[in-house]
Design the sequence.
């Protein structure tokens, strides 16, 4: 168990890096934002409300974000949060700064952190093979995000290349472009796909596994349907 008491909320993280599990202590009256369906357990004095981020137009294009808000009433309380993916959980304390997360990486944040979906653009979203939007988290307070596989952080000083399927998060200020690695023959036969070229100075968090290769590996073992 990893326990931390920083300038934000008290919390602990268990079962890292394979099956990260987050426990947060909420003082009375404190609110916590959590991804939809992320709550595993909580004290009975904690109340939940669901918020809809993005509006109707973004909901129809799959770019909206459902966030549940948990508030400790009439005393402190404890909430435990389980990510959807089998993988790691990472914590960052934002100090009037911003981090961009890939669409499924948001896990929880303090109420003082602004969480909003940001459209990548048709070209970047389509060619990255990932979702068409990123999640921008900004302001001051605790932020937790999760991955498929373990999480590693990389300091970018000038430029760096990351396979798009491995990106979990990156700091604001980094510029990025989506491109293919090698030619089109490499794209279809090498097993490599599109990459993200970061430039500038900042930090990138990557996950040690990709979802799509795992699906391709599992697929041959699926029971064949009866014709």
Sequence:
């Amino acid at each position: 168990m990893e326990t931390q008491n920083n300038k934000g909320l008290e919390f602990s993280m268990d079962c890292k890096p394979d099956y990260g599990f987050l426990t947060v202590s909420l003082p009375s009256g404190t609110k916590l934002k959590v991804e939809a369906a992320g709550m595993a357990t909580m004290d009975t004095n904690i109340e939940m409300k669901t918020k809809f981020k993005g509006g109707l137009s973004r909901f129809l294009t799959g770019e909206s974000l459902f966030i549940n808000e948990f508030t400790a009433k009439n005393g402190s309380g404890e909430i435990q949060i389980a990510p959807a993916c089998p993988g790691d959980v990472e914590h960052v304390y934002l100090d009037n700064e911003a981090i961009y997360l890939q669409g499924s990486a948001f896990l929880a944040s303090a109420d003082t952190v602004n969480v909003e979906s940001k459209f990548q653009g048709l070209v970047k979203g389509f060619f990255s093979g990932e979702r068409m939007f990123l999640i921008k988290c900004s302001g001051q307070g605790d932020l937790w995000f999760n991955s498929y596989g373990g999480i590693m952080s990389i300091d970018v000083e000038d430029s760096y290349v990351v396979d798009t399927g491995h990106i979990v998060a990156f700091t604001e200020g980094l510029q990025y472009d989506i491109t293919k690695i090698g030619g089109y023959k490499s794209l279809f036969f090498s097993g490599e796909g599109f990459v993200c070229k970061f430039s500038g100075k900042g930090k990138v968090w990557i996950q040690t596994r990709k979802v799509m290769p795992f699906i391709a590996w599992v697929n041959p073992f699926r029971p064949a349907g009866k014709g």
Observations:
- The chain has one domain: 2-217.
- Residues 54-64, 122-130, 184-191 have pLDDT under 50 and may be disordered.
- The domain at 2-217 is CATH 3.60.160.10 (Double-stranded beta-helix).
- Residues 84 and 143 are 17 Å apart (CA to CA).
